[in-house]
């Protein structure tokens, strides 16, 4: 088996799995159905075409930079301006970075990597208004899915890494397998993207974590150097001397 590693980064992403009507939500991480759809688009498959060859892929996500949820409030009127359409709310992840791994046969993985470099259809991160900001393909490896995700260096933006400690625990969400039993289920296994009868099945997933090092860590509270606006400064904060009845002791520990 071979694993293809992708990075999904952009100003906006949206990964809804249960959106209906006026509220179009986003999940906290890319869904398997959305990534399979992205791979199908890269291969040039239309929505009505079968995707059985992609369903054999094992899927996993590492959350390198979770981002934050933002809301887009939209109004619209009918084409003839005779009435207003329902108000809609769309939710996105802003400034998020994810690493996605798909494991499968070598021939299929190499074909997917080549297709992502020269996609047949435009690719986007969950919605058409969310183009990727970096090249999608990180590379392929002969490692299995979970070791490949665990061994890749941290892909978060430099400004984000500088705000975090030297060791980080990143959320890991992978298809359940022999080494990781399911501790959750999601209706996120795509069976057909045909607009006339879209179908999704349940898939078992395992939620875990993996550790990564942060070479850009800055400890801003121990008197070491820090960077503010590109200028290196030294912290001047001194710890307060506490007494047995110090009313501010609770604050010092925060």
UniProtKB/TrEMBL annotation:
Tree of life domain? Bacteria
Instruction: For this UniProt record, give its keywords in alphabetical order, as a comma-separated list.
Output: Antiviral defense
Keyword Repeat on entry: no
Q: Supply the InterPro entries for this chain.
A: CRISPR-assoc_prot_Cas5, CRISPR-assoc_prot_Cas5_N, CRISPR-assoc_prot_CasD
Segments of this protein annotated with the region Disordered: 211-254
Q: What Gene3D superfamilies does UniProt report for this protein, alphabetically? A: 3.30.70.2660
Q: Which GO terms describe its biological process?
A: defense response to virus; maintenance of CRISPR repeat elements
Q: Name one GO molecular function term.
A: RNA binding
Tell whether Transmembrane is among the UniProt keywords: no
- This protein is called CRISPR system Cascade subunit CasD
């Amino acid at each position: 088996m071979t694993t293809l590693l992708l990075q999904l980064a952009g100003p906006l992403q949206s990964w809804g799995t249960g959106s209906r009507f006026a509220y179009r939500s986003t999940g906290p991480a890319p869904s398997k159905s959305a990534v399979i759809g992205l791979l199908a688009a890269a291969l040039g498959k239309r929505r009505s075409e079968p995707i059985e060859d992609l369903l054999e892929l094992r899927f996993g996500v590492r959350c390198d930079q979770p981002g934050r949820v933002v809301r887009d409030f939209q109004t619209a009127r009918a084409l003839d301006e005779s009435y207003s359409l329902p108000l809609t709310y769309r939710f996105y992840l802003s400034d998020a970075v994810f690493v996605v791994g798909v494991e499968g046969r070598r021939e299929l993985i190499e074909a997917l990597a080549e297709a992502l470099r020269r996609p047949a259809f435009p690719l986007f991160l969950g919605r058409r208004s969310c183009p990727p900001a970096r090249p999608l393909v990180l590379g392929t490896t002969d490692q299995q899915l979970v070791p490949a995700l665990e061994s890749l260096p941290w892909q978060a933006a430099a400004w984000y890494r500088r705000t975090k400690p030297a060791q980080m625990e990143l959320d890991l969400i992978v298809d359940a397998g022999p080494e990781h039993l399911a501790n959750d289920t999601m209706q996120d296994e795509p069976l057909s993207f045909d607009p006339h009868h879209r179908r999704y099945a349940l898939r078992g997933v395992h939620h875990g974590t993996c550790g990564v090092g942060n070479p850009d860590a800055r400890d801003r509270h121990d008197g070491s150097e820090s960077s503010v606006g590109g200028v290196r400064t030294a912290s001047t904060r001194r710890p307060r001397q506490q007494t047995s009845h110090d009313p501010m002791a609770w604050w010092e520990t925060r």
